[in-house]
Amino acid sequence: MKRLIGLLLAGSLALLLFGCSRTVTVESDPPFVSTLDALFEISDYVVTGKAEGTKPGRMYKAANGEVEYAVTDMVVKVDEVLKGDLLPNAKVTVAQWGGTVGLTTYEYKGVRHLQPGKRYLLFLEQMKDGSLTLTSYLQSQYELDLGEKLYFNGSGAKSRSEEFTVPGLKERGAKLPDRSKDQ
After folding, report:
1. What is the number of helices (H) and of strands (E) in the chain?
2. pLDDT digits (tens, 9 = 90+) for 51-85
3. N or C: which end of the chain has fewer CB within 10 A?
4. Rounded to whole angstroms, how far apart are CA atoms 46 and 140?
5. Which is nearest to 80 in space by CA: 172, 177, 167, 183?
6. What percent of the chain has pLDDT over 90?
7. Which CATH number fits domain 21-182: 2.40.50, 2.160.20, 1.10.357, 1.10.3820?
8. Closest CA to 36 of 168, 157, 125
9. Mean pLDDT to the nearest integer, 3-29
């Protein structure tokens, strides 16, 4: 009898918890940057690294203190620094818009999260609270293959052009002015 009551209580609790969860889709207007050169110029950091794992979702309060956004933090181990003062082998936390906070899952249109175990080229900006985020959502994350070729995250398209390799981008970036602090 005690076992039956325990099972009923556990089942009721599970129904209560899962029955109360919800998903909220948030319209977002991601910034659009017209070229890789412009993205490189406005980013505070440009790095290659491996996504290692996520931390629990949290609410991020915007600089105005009024608006809050759900974010999921991804830990990325930096391999190479193309721009900025991060160190190779450093582990940085990248805030990605969306995620689950409490019983609510927030999905932001135009946002695709980094996947643990994959290597990326990332264009990052530092937010006012010091945390890092992608400069321009999907435009700021490129999956890397073993030959350091860039793949637009999610499209599977591969460019044959030298400018879409890490060494090619590093060479081009060295010739560009640094506009990350002009904003």
Report:
1. 3, 11
2. 998 888 888 877 676 667 888 899 999 999 999 99
3. N
4. 9
5. 167
6. 23
7. 2.40.50
8. 168
9. 52
Whether residue 95 is predicted with pLDDT greater than 50 in this model: the reply is yes
Domain boundaries, the chain: 21-182
Tokens coding 45:
């950091």
> Token pair 């398209």 is at which residue?
157
Please report how many Cα atoms fall inside a 13 Å half-sphere around the Cα of residue 49, on the Cβ side. 28
Tokens at residue 15, please?
């129904």
Find the length of the chain.
Answer: 183
The first and second tokens of residue 44, run together, are 């505070």
Query: In terms of DSSP bridges, do strands 104-108 and 22-26 run parallel, antiparallel, or are they unpaired?
Result: parallel
